[in-house]
C-alpha cells in the first residue's frame, strides 16, 4: 500500500511548534550550568540526538529482520528510511559532541571509548549508505543492506555501556545527583521534539521509497 | 573562541544537517515526479 501524506499540514505545524518551543526552552528557560557555563546547553541537542539515533537504528534493525524473514517491500522501505534518519542523527551526535569537547576538554577529538565506538557506527552506516546507493535497486543489494543494518546495530549497546566498561574521558550523562528541574524539563521537551522530527522524516522517506519502488514496477511492466 | 560561539556553532551545524537532509528528500521527490512524467508521456492518449 502506498502511504498517504494527506492531512499532514496540521502535524507539520505541530512539529514546528514543538521544535520552536524546545529551542526557546534551551535558550531562554534552562539555567546556565555553574562550571561549564553557556556551552553546557549543547547537552540538550546532543542527548536528544543520541535518543533519536538509538531509536532509529533499532527500527532499522527491526524492519531489516522483518524484511529478511518476509521479503516484503514495505519492511525494506521502512528499514532504509529508519537507517537514513539514524545516520543523520549519528552525524549530528558526532559533530555536536566534537564542538562541545573543544571548550570543555580542550580538543575537538580524543580516542575515548564512547567517541571511538560512535565513530565506528558512523563508518558502518556510511558503508550501508554506499551499498544502498549503488546496489539498492537489486534484491541482493537490499538483502546485504538488511544484514549490515542488523550487524551495525550491535555497536549500539557497546556505545551505551562503553563509559562503564572502559576508562575514558566521556562522563556518564546523568549522575546520581541528577539535574535541576528546569534543565530536566528542557531536556525532556527537546528529546520529544527531536523524536517527533525523526518520526516525520522516517515517514516521509518511507513514502518516497514506496512510491519509487511502485513506479519502477510500472516502468518495467511498460517496457515488457 | 568564546563559549557562546561554540554553542551557536553546535546548533547551527545541527540545523544545517537537517536542512541538507530535507533537501535530499526534496531531490528524491523531484526525481519521482520526473519518472512519473516520463511514464505518463508513454501512455496512449484516450479520446474524450
Question: Can you summarize this structure?
Answer:
The complex is a heterodimer of chains A (224) and B (48). Chain A has 224 residues and is an all-alpha fold. Chain A has helices at residues 8-29, 42-70, 73-105, 113-135, 139-153, 155-165, 181-223.
Description of the molecule:
The complex is a heterodimer of chains A (224) and B (48). Chain A has one domain (39-171, 179-223). In chain A, 79% of the residues lie in helices and 0% in strands. Chain A has seven helices and no strands. Chain A has helices at 8-29, 42-70, 73-105, 113-135, 139-153, 155-165, 181-223. In chain A, α1 (8-29) packs antiparallel against α7. Chain A is globular, with a radius of gyration of 20 Å. Chain B has 48 residues and is mainly α. Chain B has one helix at 3-42. Chain B is rod-shaped and about 65 Å long. The mean pLDDT of chain B is 86.
Features:
heterodimer, A: 224 residues, mainly alpha, globular, B: 48 residues, 0% strand, rod-shaped
- Number of DSSP-assigned strands of chain A: 0
- How many structural units, i.e. domains of chain A? 1
The quaternary organization reads as heterodimer
Approximate shape of chain B = rod-shaped
Q: Which structural class do the helices and strands of chain A define?
A: mainly alpha
Largest interface pair: A-B, 31 and 24 residues
Query: How helix-rich are the residues of chain A, as a percent range?
Result: over 70%
Number of helices of chain B: 1
Major sheet of chain B, described briefly? none
* Arithmetic mean pLDDT of chain A: 91
Output the helix-strand order of chain A: HHHHHHH
Q: In angstroms, what separates the terminal alpha carbons of chain A?
A: 23 Å
What is the structural class of chain B?
mainly alpha
**Helix and strand pattern of chain B:** H
Rg from Cα of chain A: 20 Å
The share of residues in extended strands of chain B comes to: under 5%
Overall 3D geometry of chain A? globular
Amino acid at each position: 500500500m502506498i502511504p498517504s501524506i494527506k492531512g499532514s499540514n496540521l502535524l507539520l505545524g505541530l512539529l514546528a511548534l514543538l521544535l520552536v518551543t524546545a529551542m526557546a526552552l534551551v535558550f531562554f528557560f534552562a539555567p546556565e550550568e555553574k562550571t561549564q557555563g553557556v556551552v553546557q546547553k549543547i547537552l540538550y541537542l546532543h542527548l536528544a540526538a543520541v535518543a533519536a539515533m538509538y531509536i532509529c537504528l533499532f527500527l532499522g534493525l527491526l524492519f531489516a529482520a522483518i524484511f529478511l524473514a518476509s521479503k516484503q517491500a514495505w519492511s525494506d522501505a521502512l528499514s532504509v528510511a529508519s537507517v537514513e534518519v539514524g545516520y543523520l542523527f549519528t552525524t549530528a551526535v558526532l559533530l555536536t559532541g566534537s564542538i562541545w569537547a573543544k571548550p570543555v576538554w580542550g580538543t575537538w577529538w580524543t580516542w575515548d571509548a564512547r567517541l571511538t565506538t560512535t565513530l565506528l557506527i558512523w563508518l558502518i552506516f556510511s558503508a550501508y549508505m554506499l551499498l544502498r546507493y549503488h546496489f539498492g535497486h537489486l534484491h541482493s543489494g537490499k538483502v546485504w543492506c538488511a544484514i549490515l543494518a542488523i550487524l551495525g546495530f550491535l555497536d549500539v549497546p557497546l556505545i551505551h555501556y562503553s563509559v562503564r566498561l572502559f576508562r575514558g574521558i566521556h562522563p556518564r550523562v546523568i549522575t546520581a545527583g541528577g539535574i535541576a528541574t528546569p534543565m530536566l524539563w528542557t531536556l525532556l521537551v527537546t528529546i520529544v521534539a527531536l523524536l517527533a522530527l525523526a518520526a516525520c522524516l522516517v515517514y516521509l522517506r518511507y513514502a518516497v521509497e514506496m512510491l519509487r519502488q511502485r513506479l519502477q514496477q510500472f516502468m518495467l511492466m511498460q517496457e515488457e | 573562541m568564546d563559549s557562546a560561539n561554540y554553542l551557536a556553532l553546535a546548533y547551527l551545524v545541527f540545523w544545517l544537517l537537517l536542512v541538507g537532509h530535507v533537501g535530499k528528500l526534496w531531490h528524491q521527490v523531484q526525481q519521482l515526479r520526473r519518472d512519473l512524467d516520463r511514464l505518463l508521456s508513454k501512455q496512449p492518449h484516450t479520446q474524450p
